[in-house]
Write a structure and sequence with these properties.
This protein has eleven helices and eight strands. Strand 3, helix 5 and strand 4 form a beta-alpha-beta unit. Helices cover 46% and strands 15% of the residues. The protein has a four-stranded parallel β-sheet with strand order 2-1-3-4, sandwiched between helices. The protein has a four-stranded parallel β-sheet with strand order 6-5-7-8, sandwiched between helices. It is α/β, with parallel strands linked by helices and 317 residues long. It folds into two domains: 2-149 and 296-311, Rossmann fold; 153-289, 3-Layer(aba) Sandwich (Rossmann fold), CATH 3.40.50. The two termini are 18 Å apart.
Length: 317
């Protein structure tokens, strides 16, 4: 504590962001598309996806708010009076820059940034950090960042418990636990990240292998999901391409473990629970997915411990 003179340390909790209501969907996607509004057809389709999962009510934002509150509670337990959490979103208000500004307004001069995504990529976590850093430099806040926590023992434990539970649930449909195929997944990124030597793919495989081993799963593979709609190629195969191949191989039950995501949002509730589920039904394959981390105590501890560890490096860099 003495090193930081008893001053409160800011914690900027960053995530992708989600619209607050159906009315915000257009502005949200316009921001994602760098100022280009979605076409009326695309907007109708996007709104349809949100309607399908939330029926016009918007619990998605609450997930992130809950995670930030949960992290604040956990930090308060581990280091009373030392940390104040702020939220900064990539594509919705409060934006990353707003979160940094709020810290400055509150007199914060030192802060730790962490993203609600365990795996580092220059295109995801790296871009959050860049925006936060630029604003922090402008406002005279000294910041350090948690770049990844994909092998944190408590994160792995939380995921392992979920995979083991899921396999047990599907075992009857598969004809035994050993016949359940586990598909680990994450948000696809453009293929060009491979040329950049980006660690994203490798880190996802490391998490998946560690969880599979701990959950005693021998039959698993990695697949991608939720690729963007751009002209450039994205990492694949997509889960919708993987499922027919598995059905052809005689797989009867698939457990999806979207380890690249930490909460219930569109990519999980629509892309997996509706789209992939419908594809699996057509193929006569039983499909289930693990429960998301959301405010799981082990996930909150993972974040809190990662923040405290990062604080130790503040000022030494």
């Amino acid at each position: 504590m003495s090193k930081h003179d008893g001053k409160r340390i800011g914690v900027l909790v960053m995530s992708y962001g989600t619209p607050e209501s159906m009315d915000d969907v257009e502005a949200y996607y316009t921001h994602i598309r760098r100022g280009n509004a979605p076409t009326p057809e695309l907007l109708a389709e996007l709104k349809g996806r949100y309607e399908a999962i939330v029926g016009g009510v918007f619990p998605l934002r609450e997930n992130t708010n809950g995670q930030v509150a949960g992290l604040q509670d956990k930090l308060e337990q581990l280091a009373p009076g030392q940390f104040s959490c702020y939220q900064g979103l990539k594509h919705a208000k409060p934006y990353i820059e707003d979160g940094v500004q709020q810290m400055a307004n509150d007199g914060i001069t030192e802060a730790v940034g962490i993203v609600l995504a365990p795996h580092f990529s220059t295109m995801s976590v790296g871009s959050y950090i860049k925006r936060a850093e630029e604003k922090a430099n402008e406002l005279g806040i000294t910041m350090t960042f948690v770049k990844q926590y994909h092998m944190h023992p408590k994160l792995l434990l939380a995921l392992t418990e979920r995979v083991a539970d899921g396999v047990a649930r599907l075992a009857p449909a598969a004809g035994g636990a050993d016949k359940v195929k586990v598909l680990f997944s994450a948000h696809s990124l453009p293929v060009k990240i491979r040329e950049l030597g980006d660690p994203y793919e490798q880190q996802l495989l490391e998490t998946s292998a560690a969880v599979a081993k701990a959950a005693n799963v021998s039959d698993w593979q990695f697949t991608w999901q939720s690729a963007g709609r751009t002209r450039e190629p994205w990492l694949g195969p997509d889960i919708l391409e993987t499922l027919p191949v598995l059905a052809e191989e005689g797989v009867k039950a698939v457990l999806v473990a979207p380890v690249g995501f930490v909460s219930d949002h569109l990519e999980v509730l629509y892309d997996l629970d509706i789209e992939a589920q419908a594809a699996a039904k057509k193929l006569d394959v039983a499909l289930d997915r693990i429960a998301m981390l959301n405010r799981d105590p082990l996930y909150m501890e993972t974040l809190a411990e990662s923040v405290i560890e990062a604080l130790a490096s503040l000022g030494k860099e």
